[in-house]
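ENCODED BACKBONE
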Amino acid sequence: MFKFVMKRIGISALILFLASVLVYVLTINSGDPLADLRESNDTNRQNRMDQRTEQMRLNDPWFVRYWDWLRGILGCFRLQCDFGQNRSGQDVNQLLGNAAESTIRLVLLATILGIVLGVFFGVMAAIRQYSGFDYSVTMLAFVFYSLPSFVFAILLKEFGAIRFNNWLAAPTFNTVFIVVFSLLFALFVQAIIAGTAKKRLIAGSASFLISIGIFQILAVTNWISDPIAGLWIEVTTGIAAAILFTSLLVGLQNRRGLMVTLGSAATMIVVVIAMGGILKDPSWIGLFVVLLVGVAIAVGLAQFFGGYAKKGVMWASVWTVVSIWIATIVDYLARHWTDYIELVRGRPISTIGSMSPNFRAADDFWLNLMDTSTHLILPTLSLTLMSVASYTRYTRSSMLEVLGQDYVRTARAKGLPELTVMSRHAFRNALLPITTIVAFDFASLIGGAVITEKVFGWKGMGELFETALKNVDPDPVMAFFLVTGGIAVLMNMFADILYAYIDPRIRR
């Protein structure tokens, strides 16, 4: 395994080096870095041209300039990275740090959501092959996959921000909208539920009535304008998550496992109450301490009381704790929603930038998190839906191929429960090709975020790359390449290593 890993690292380093040479040569030959000064009527034009020529070392051979840039990058091995300077003399290290922080925050969230939702819908579509649910998911996947990112982003700005903010001024629910939405939700739920037509009809009808009831509660309590926050969010989430994850990972017939998972949920809620002082004005470290305490207790309970299915109970408990932790964040954000609405003058969903100008002056963790989150919603949704489309298509295809294999039929013939057949035999093997897609998708999302950032006015990697390329400025372009290209190579190398770990035959 060590030899295999070292070989992959060597190949990855060689690919990155050759690609960097190609990108550098293409960048410096993509235009004239003095074009704007040549067209200037300034009497000091020649002096400014000479200064820029000296600053960018335009009289030096390209390989000398490239070598100096490479020496600065190799300093990263000594923790002294030097990405050079742009044509104005600004340090690219600082420019890259600010740009990468915004872009990676956006892309990382979109990738996680894309994987979770895409794999889920792909698996469910494969299990319900040729059903209405399968046709609907496949159609939507093709639509989102084919729709240009800038078109989708503009539609989100119009309907997800401008019109939605207008609606928030006087939020009311139209009867037709409630009925149509509830009907679509009921069709979605009954399509996921396995079993007889009677069972699906009951599930769909219950979902329809629950959806209408929720809309009525929202209308009566004016929850959209003034959310009713409180511990009920964590309690409801904990019960629902415990039942959901126990049914998926252990099976509800395992009463002991369900009780342990519910016990973990109750313990996590107690932890949230006990650490209420920290949560009033926390830091990210404090939030993760709360999460780690809950996870540690959940793992301990599963190990001591999990019974014969300790591993499944442990994961069900851990995911339940994580769900309650997320619900806690939602709870505290809801408590600050009214204050945030006032600060942004009734228009919380932003269309421009990654944060509100001068908003950071408000020294409140939850208000700052609210501001960051509302700015993330639309660009993240734009990238996520395109990513979900690709994951859904590949996961469905991979699951269908695996479900036709002999070992799956053998597992069913042995009388194993369908949940065990799907999770332990089919799903695990279907994940092999998805591993490669994740590696490519994360890198391509960073490149694709250039367009999304342009539409939403984000000061990220996209703007850094676009400005530098327009100015024929190689150092910022190479910084963009090093981040995106490095992530692409590293993720592919990680996929190769993970492949070899999952399937030992690949090592040979």
Notes: The mean pLDDT is 84. Residues 104-448 form one domain. The two ends are 10 Å apart (CA to CA).
